[in-house]
Amino acid sequence: MNLTLFKGGEPLVKRTIFFFLLSICFSPVIYKLLPDPIHTSSMALKLYGIPMSTCTARVLACTYEKNIEVQLVPVTLAAGEHKQPSFLAKNPFGVIPVLEDGDLTLFESRAITAYLSKKYKEQGEDLLRLKGGNLKEEAMVGLWLEVESQQYSPAITPILYEHFFAPRRGKIPNQKVIEDGLVKFEKVLDVYESRLSQSKYLAGDFYSLADLHHLSFTLYLMRSPWASLISSRPHVNAWWECISSRPASQKVIQGMTPAEK
Amino acid sequence: MEASKNTMVVKVIGPPYASCSRRVLACLIEKEVEFEIIPIDILKGEQKSPEFLKLQPFGVVPVIQDGDYTLYESRAIMRYYSEKYKSQGTDLLGKTLEEKGLVEQWLETEGQNYHPPIYNLILHLLFHPKLGFPVDDKIVKESEEKLEKVLDIYEERLSKSKYLAGEFFSLADLSHLPFTHYLVHDIGRAYLIRNRKHVSAWWDDITSRESWKKVLQL
């Protein structure tokens, strides 16, 4: 550095010149230290959960579709980690998943996928139809997101719980709950069959977050004695084949498949 | 259902006393959007008529018609109008991505954790007696226990934050209004709210809004 520039100059001028020269000298270093707006900021994302969990899988599917890197932090459910004070501080409802993005902590898988789809709208699949500025398409996605949340999942979960999870807790599956659940669920699927006979995907002729949200629970259904509820409905079946064969979906399915011993 | 002659306003199809319709109506009032209610008789099962099922295949209210555009699911309707009219009326979605994330988190909490037990309580304690259906005491007891646990979490949250998503009223708070109104006024469970200081203060605040007072008069 030419220190003679500093002699006799105004203090403000001196400081300006000093920092200008400093920035030139260190510019390659500074460039490397500057955060890459997509890569480094997404490296700060932490997702607390496990790939086998349906709700964690929902979020992972979104990250795979949008090429978002997250650090998956496993939570030991068997040891009750999700009910410990340190986890309850993140999600007072004591369930996975939880997303940490810098100072922001978010729970509820559907809120997390909505947040990620908005924050990273410019990359990967446009799951909420935000790039085209078509509010009506966005609203159709919103409608079928709510249908999954309020009609499909409440109908399917009691059946899956009784069949897959009750035995693990030493309980005998409640056949009445399963039978009543199947009646209700079939009515919902009939609406889906009708919808998907008019439209390739739920919200329109484009894959969206609404389709994605169905992946993990429907995968369990396909592994249950009631897979024919899907396969017997030609349009629902075609839709399932289509959405489950996507590379991102295949990755999720792999994560939800126990390793063979 | 009679066709309305006024095509300029949003038609909200469903009776004004229906909880999910009230969600939408409160939102439209907050957003200063003109609407017209097209009442249908859900006690007579008009929502299961073929005509209605063409609009809403699940046979529940409300549905909106906005010109030739149809939308259902009350939370989807609220999100649509909050976004469409984001520059008028109350901002119900949050301004930054982070605020929007928190609004979604608490709106999902309402939909996934609060709604199921409170719906069961209202169904069994308010609607079943009126319709001559039996009241399942086991469901009532379990639902009340579940709702209490959720309200404990709300109490903790609202001790740190004026509203659920932060220091601003949002869709997350609004979504709680209709069913909680029935809880407090019609099934003798006001204590669930009143026994929790911060939940109680929050409830008084959100029910004092002009939009909610207007909805109750419709």
Which descriptors apply to this entry?
heterodimer; A: 261 residues; mainly alpha; 4-stranded mixed beta sheet; 12 helices; disordered N terminus; B: 218 residues; alpha+beta; Glutaredoxin; Glutathione S-transferase Yfyf (Class Pi), Chain A, domain 2; 2 domains; 10 helices; EC 2.5.1.18 (chain B); glutathione transferase activity (chain B)
Helix and strand content put the structural class of chain B at alpha+beta
Q: Helix count of chain A?
A: 12
- Greatest contact pair? A-B, 30 and 29 residues
Assign a percent range to the helix content of chain B. 55-70%
Unreliably modeled segments of chain A: 1-8, 26-42
Trace the largest sheet of chain B across and list its strands.
2-1-3-4
Q: In percent terms, what proportion of residues of chain B is strand?
A: 5-15%
Strand content of chain A: 5-15%
State the low-pLDDT regions of chain B, or none. 1-5
Family (chain A): Belongs to the GST superfamily. Phi family.
Catalytic activity (chain A): RX + glutathione = an S-substituted glutathione + a halide anion + H(+)
GO molecular function (chain A): glutathione binding; glutathione transferase activity
Protein name (chain A): glutathione transferase
Question: Any overview of this molecule?
Answer:
The complex is a heterodimer of chains A (261) and B (218). Chain A is mainly alpha-helical. Chain A contains 12 helices and 4 strands. In chain A, helix 6 runs antiparallel to helix 7, helix 6 runs parallel beside helix 9 (215-222) and helix 7 crosses helix 11 (234-244). Chain B has 218 residues and is an alpha+beta fold. Helix content of chain B is 56%, strand content 7%. Chain B contains 10 helices and 4 strands. Chain B has a 4-stranded mixed sheet, with helices on one face. In chain B, helix 1 (19-30) crosses helix 10 (210-217), helix 4 packs across helix 7 and helix 5 (137-158) packs across helix 9 (197-207). Chain B starts with 9 loop residues before the first strand and ends with a helix. Classes of the chains: A mainly alpha (261), B alpha+beta (218). The A-B interface holds A 92-93, 103-104, 106-108, 110-111, 114-115, 118-119, 135-136, 138-139, 142-143, 145-147, 149-151, 154, 188, 191, 194-195 and B 57-58, 69, 71-73, 75-76, 79-80, 83-84, 97-98, 100-102, 104-105, 107-109, 111-113, 116, 153, 156-157. Chain B: Residues 8-89 form the GST N-terminal domain. Chain B: This is glutathione transferase. Chain B: GO terms for molecular function: glutathione binding; glutathione transferase activity. Chain B: Keywords: Transferase.
